[in-house]
Amino acid sequence: MSKIVVLGAGPAGCSAGYHLAKSGHKVMLIDKDCFPRDKTCGDGISLGSVQALSTMGIYPDDIKRLASEYAQIDGFLLGVSNEISHLCPTELKGYCIPRFVFDNLLYQKAINAGCVARTQRISDIEGYHQELYSDFDYIIDARGVYAGEANAIAIRAYWSIKVADFPKIYLSKAQIYFDKAFGVNGYGWIFPVAVDSELVKLNVGVGVWLDEYQKNNTNIIRLFNEFVQRNQATKQLLSLVVSQQKPKAYPLATAKRANTVSYGKVFKIGDAANLTDPLTGEGIANAILSGLYVTQAINMSTSPELASENWQRLYQLYFEPDLDAGLQIKSFRKFSFINKLLIWLMNRNKPFAEQVTYTFAGLIPYKKLLP
Fold this sequence. Notes:
This is FAD dependent oxidoreductase. By secondary structure, the protein is of the alpha/beta class.
């Protein structure tokens, strides 16, 4: 079996480490931080991500048993700030879990599978070229967005509110609001991430794509503050906050066309491979699945060169078609009234509303929406 180094212990790196170790390879899992550690994110675990977690032997009962903080999500509210909205329940359940909790759950799975952990910052693979190439047969680059190509930016804050003051129906709902201030594709959100007998912890945030963000004379902190003060839902909640954490901004590496995910012994996965959804910014499902498929590419190959070709093929087979479909849909959305029209149609057509909701939740591929 091979000696493999996985750089980065987020969802993609832990998935790769887990599957490679289970396959009998000697795996070193390197991350710049000691675990548990925080990761700034929207904290959403979509329905598609829940399915992907099963490939690592993590099921809903495991989440409920092992996660110290989580909220179960059984519906989505899609709206345009202060204008129109649609609430659609889902039969299947997703989750919102703080990444401090979620990433540590995956990290422990990888370590228990046999990965050897090391804490070390490797910001430039080429700077460590000789060491990595001489010591390992394969290099899995799972260092996240900073190893990919950032094309979106987001910001989130944690708010805590008394359960008695929070609308009961939204304790298990993800609220998503389009707003013309964010461009056509950007949106704000209110996600419950932990609920106990006294408090509900919320992840409140805004995400925008750089091609629209750079056209406006603003910054992400200002956009967040405008969302909080202008959106009726966030404005009302802000008056009820009993504690809050300072907002933190973070970049995203969403899908891009003609993507190359391997070169030489280096195999890029997760955010490092720009596998994040180009419409929703959700990256957990593809991150976890990329760890599975890169393992398959290595296991089916007799050399790093052949494995590199196979990983590119698997990317083109399992990821590229739907990512390209998402990019195509994104290109159609040129005017903000499209978001209002979308929700207007959802309010008048239940099957259409369910299709949009389950697509947004990662269960229906974008390519099925295209002619």
